[in-house]
Write a structure and sequence with these properties.
Layout lengths: L2 H31 L17 H15 L5 H6 L3 H11 L4
InterPro entries: ACP-like_sf, PKS_PP-bd, PP-bd_ACP
Protein name: Phosphopantetheine attachment site
GO molecular function: phosphopantetheine binding
């Protein structure tokens, strides 16, 4: 395997992990907010999110991924895709 092949494999794995995290967060947002049409770019505020649902979302993320995500991040990164990028880059899963 060449260095380029190894880099491609690392990129593919990172992309798959990121996609899995986004998919998981979309499912968590849908379940918590009761909005079936929600997608990766749906804004937390625009679909009816509030502080209570933000706490519920972070609790479900912790259950699913084993990471403690501060509620403030749900407000700072209001779409599942945005929050997933932070979760994937800033937290170590246990």
């Amino acid at each position: 395997m060449t260095a380029t092949d190894h880099a491609d494999t690392d990129t593919s794995t990172a992309t798959a992990d990121a996609t899995a995290t986004v998919d998981l967060l979309v499912a968590v947002y849908r379940e918590t907010l009761g909005t079936a049409g929600l997608d990766r770019d749906s804004d937390f505020y625009e679909v009816g999110g509030d502080s209570l649902t933000a706490f519920q979302i972070t609790g479900r993320i912790q259950e699913a991924l084993g990471v403690e995500v501060p509620v403030s991040l749900v407000f700072a990164y209001p779409t599942p895709a945005d929050l997933a990028s932070v979760v994937d880059s800033d937290f170590v899963r246990v």
